[in-house]
Every structure is written in C-alpha cells, then in structure tokens.
Amino acid sequence: MAENKVVGQSIRRLDAYEKVIGAARYTIDYTEPGTLYVKVLRSPYPHAKIKSIHVEQAQALYGVEAIMTCFNCPQTKFNWSDATVCSTTPEEVALDMCLFDQEVRYVGDEVAAVAAISEKIALEALGLIDVEYEVLPAVMDVHAAMEPGAPLLHPEVNPKSNQLGCVHKIVGDVEKGFSACSVIVEETYTLPVVKQMQLETQNALAVFSGDGKLTVWSPTQSPALAQRLISNICGIPMSKIRVRNPGYVGGAFGVRIGLSSKAELMAVEFAKRTGRPVKFVYDRKEDCIASETRHSGEFHVKIGADAEGNILALQAKGMMNTGAYALSSQGMPACASSHILTEYHIPNMDYWAATIYTNYTPAGAMRGYAAPQPTFALELSISKLAEKLNMDPRALREKNLMQPGEPWVNPYALRTTAAKECIALGAERIGWDAFYKEKKENHGRYRRGIGMACGNHISSGAPFSIEHSNVVMGMHCDGSIQFAVGIMEMGTGLKTTLIQIAAEELGASVDTFSLSIGDTEIPLADFGAQASRGTFTTGMAVKKAAANLKRQMLEYAEKKKQVAPGSFQLKNTSVCDQEGNPVYTFRQLATEADRDNRQFIAVGQNINDNALSWNAHYADVTVDMETGHVFVNRYVAIHDAGKVINPDLLKAQIEGGICIGIGYALQEQIAYGRDGKQINESFHKYMIPVADDLGEICADFVETDEPTGPFGAKGVAESPVSPVAPAIADAIHSATGIWFNQLPITPERVKLRIQEEGLFKNV
Fold this sequence. Notes:
Aldehyde Oxidoreductase, domain 4, Aldehyde Oxidoreductase, domain 3, globular, 28 strands, 5-stranded mixed beta sheet
C-alpha cells in the first residue's frame, strides 16, 4: 500500500476548520425552548451538619419552578466518577455521596439548588434560602486525618479511620537489599493541589421527550459510562437514556470522567420534577471549588545502590489526599505503583500507599492520573543518588532501566521499550554531554542548569478497570464509508487518528470516511477518552472493524469475478489485483453489491491488553538568583509511542503535556485558608503557564512496534506530564546546587532557599 499509506503521515486535523472559524459547537452552546436554569447554594464550611433549611421565600419568588435540598431529595449513595461502573472490583467501590447530604464535607459542597426561568432569578432565590448549620471539626491534612480520634468523614466506608484505598506490595527482601548498598538517599516529597482549569466549565442539559426518553447533553469523556451512571443513580433504564455531545469538548484533562461533577444529575433530577428542559452551567468559581482536583499529599522514598550504580533497594510510602469524597481515588495507590515500581529493575522493593479522606475539595482524575506524584519522588531521588555516586544521572538511569520480558503489572510483562534510545536522543538534542563535560562554575545573578527525568505510562485502563471498545462500520452504496465509535473527541485530534487507522487498513483515502462520535444512541460501549487509550484501544477496535469490512469486500469481489481467494487486495480506494491493477473502485463495488441486495457492515470489538509508553525529558533553565524566578529556556522531550499514526498530532500531545507539567513544577497550586476556603478560585488568581513561561519546546519520538496496538501504536496522551517537574527540579539543582522537594517551585521558595544557603549577594 505504498501509494496510499496514511499511517505515519501528518495529515491536517479534520476538525481544524470548524474550530478556527468558530463554527465548532460545545455542550455549553445548546439549549431548548422553555429551558430552566439551575444554580446551587454551597457550603461555607469545610465540615458541618445541616440542621434546617427554609426555602419558603425562595419558592415564592416569581420564576422559581423547583428547589431541592437534602430534606426533599433521595439519599441514594453514588460516586460521580467512573469507579461505580468500570472498576474491576465493584463490590469494593466507595459509594459515599448523595445529590444532597445533610452533612457537608468541604467548602463548596451542595446544600440546595434552585431551578428557575433564568440564572438571574435562580441566583436571587439562593439569597433567600436560610440555612442553619452545626459546624463540625474539620481535618485539612492527611496526617491529622489519620490521628487517633480524628473526625471520621465516612464511617459507612471505613468505620476505623479516614483511610480509603490502600496498596502494599513487596518484592524481594528490602532490608537485605539496603544492607548491600554503598549509597542511600532518603527524602520526603510534598505535592500540591492543582486544578485542570479546562476552558468549558462543567455543564449539562437534560430533556425528557413525550415518550419518556431522556436526552442528556454532556461534555463527559465517557458517554457510555455517563449513561450507566445516570441509570444507576436516577433509576432510569439505560434504553431510555441518550447521552450526547456535539462532537467537541472544551478541554477535559480527566475532570469529566464519568460525569461532569453533578451537572448531569442536577439537570436530570430537576427535569424529572418539572417536566421541562433543564440546564446547569457551573461558573468558573464553582468549577474550581466543586469539581475534582489532582491529588495532593506526599511520597517518602528511600533508595539505595552499590558503588557501581546498581540500584538494589527501594522503599516508597505515599499518603495522598482524596478530599471529601472517593471518586476515582480508591484506585490511585495501585495506579501509582505502576509508575514507581515499573521504570527501573530493582530487585528489592517495598511499596505502601493510601488515599486519605480530608475536608478538601474532592480529588479525582487529572491528566497523568497517579503518575506525576510518584514520578517526581522517584526521579528526583534517582538524580540525588547519581550525585552521591558521582555518576552521570543519564548513565545511572540507562544502567537500571527495566528490560523487555520483566513483569511490570501482573499479568503483564514488558514487551517493548525504547527508553534507552529516548534518553540518548534527548541528551543529544539538549547538549547534555557537552554541558556536563564543561562543568563550569555558576556565578553571577543568572545561572544556567540542565536536568533530566524519565517516565512511563499505561496505554489503557487494564488491569485496573474494565476495558473494552466497540465500533460499527459500513459502506454506503456510493462507496463512502461511515463508522461510529463510543469514545469522545476532546481536543486531541482523535477523530483524525481513527480515520487514518481505518483508511490504512482499507487502503483508502481519508476523505472516503465519516465518523460519528460521542452519542449513545448507537449502543457502542466504550471505556471513554481516558487512560491514554483512544488510539491504542479504540483505534484497535477501528482496525478490527475495518479488517472485517475488508474481508467482506474482497470475498464479494473475488466471488463476482470468479477468482481464487486471495487474488485481490484493497489499494488506492479500489479493489485491485496483486499487480495493483484496479478491478473495482469502491463506488463500483458498492453499486454492484447494492444491486445484489448485499451490504458491507462490520463490527470491531476490542478487549485490550496494555502497553507502557516510555519517555526521557530534559530541561534547560536559568535561575535568577536575585528574584528566585526560574526561566525554562528549552525543553526536550523524546517519547516511545510505538508506531506513530500522525506525527504532528503526537508532537502536539507531548507539547500540551509539557505545558501542564511546567505549571505543576513552577506555578500552580490551589491554596486554602484556615477556614477551608480556596483562595485562588479563578483564572486571575490561579496562575497557569502562558506562552512566555514555556520557552522552546522540542518534542520528538522514537518508534517501536507494539504488537497489541493498531499498526504498532501505543497510547501517549498522559505520558508527557509526569517527568516535567523532576526534570526542572534537577535543572534548578544543576544551576544552584539546591534540591527542592516541594512543588511548586515558586520564586518565593527559590529566593528563600538562596538566602538561607547564602548563595548570592546583590552587590
């Protein structure tokens, strides 16, 4: 298929034009005649019991159609994340929240909601609701939450403590391993609360038709999971629920897995009560304080090596803050283990991690789920170990990398890795060897440093969750091909990638295809756009559907021409003989089949394996010793993503992940006051990176052939986030000699350490 090869080509994104001209529509753009609008009264306390709620004045206000509180709402327990429907151990899932609970557990928890004919009236009604609270003791720290006698936030989940999920894994003999070490590093690393800050806030529109069919417009990352959750929570058969998305999501980064917080549930419940369409759009502050964050907390790491740099032992302990509710936090310790235990060959390991309830905003999924925290701790410890060994950090990593055939997560063994190649290419691009050979002393106000870190990430939800994708594909009588998938497009270019996969398998041009996406009306169960699985898992289902369709087309053509099986091939959007001579165009074949009352319709089903994508990142920074500011001059990231389907889209994914990682390293943190309130709950207070913060980004890849991915591809979307913070921290140390174990590494923290160490005097 050399004349028609589309896999590996940087074809233009198929959604680019609509986005550029502003024609792309998002869930937030949709409404219906007679729509009611929801606004929510939220708790001002991190922990309290609601003694009474008086809504009479609000109910009497013109335009108010309905009010919900804990006193008139079902107390069905649920979890708005995907955990209730996709966990491989559903009997263990923590169902710990209600639509409204008499006990509120964080500032921003739902107290009451109003549905009115306008947002203005709904907001006015909120001001007329009178609530009496009994303020309860709050815990705002994982250590305090685990103290004896600490208030239990969810005794129905754990009657003994605030511990939620916990994993303990032991490999080999750790004590024996450490006894053989010449050098040991032991440090504690502190991780912040950060927010996805996606452009489209949480929102939903719910509409009941006359026959009782419910349509929910939602920006969910997983329409099928949302459908199942709405069914489970609201008691509506799945066959009566349609979850739709217009095809575009205004950013997600994990915050929309399952449901978009409580937007869908609020809209559905009010629609049931009023018989009207209902829309609920979070404002920016609501989105910050009442939708999930990345887990904060700490990792304690002890790691040791012999004099030759063979890492012999690792001990890691993580305590992650899940906030007020479980969401996807039960699986966080297990997923974190797949990163901290699977990058290097270490014969002796002891890993313990737990998620802990506190009165923070609930934590859940964010891009790179469960990876940035342990990767920061592990990779910075590796760099410190190299310093103690007087060894090149690059060489130490290369010496200890996991090799193919080694088990990484049961039941999976590592099949393919280009980690060494990524390290080598990245070092070349950043000028690593030259920088370290020079070993120049850093003097003056502006000091330059180079640092590195490595990482990996899974390519699907397996084995931590249910993992499946389904595709339906059919050919029209004019030879064009239409297919449908159950996954979402959320800005990654997935539509383009999936069409490229189909086109490659069928030997067709990309303009032959149309793709339907994000609609449960076609019942195609799919785990959703998460866990770096879009290309890897759904892409394989697309490839299988296309292969099935190809088989049907070839069998029909060979039978019509009365030739032996295997005589024809698909090439250049035609059925060709083995010499490449056209026998039928797709249009001619479809027309012929139509006359014979024959249709070509195929299904592709995929229950996927998993594969690790690998990376090596290098940061070149300058530190202003007077102000503490850190400037990223250049950032190089090399990724092993298997076979690359679309190089430009892959590089864009890597660049986007690096941007998130730079924010995590240097800027971003949700701060809480003593009263439990978020201090920076908007864009003008929460500092995400802008173009001037990023420097030059060089994203590239090394290809391997992963046998379980479509045409050898792996997932890569989440992989670029994790190594950024340790690479930058290593570079800052290279420039200043100071190690920073706490994120973000803000100018204030840098300046304070410089002053404490007496490293610079402004003369």
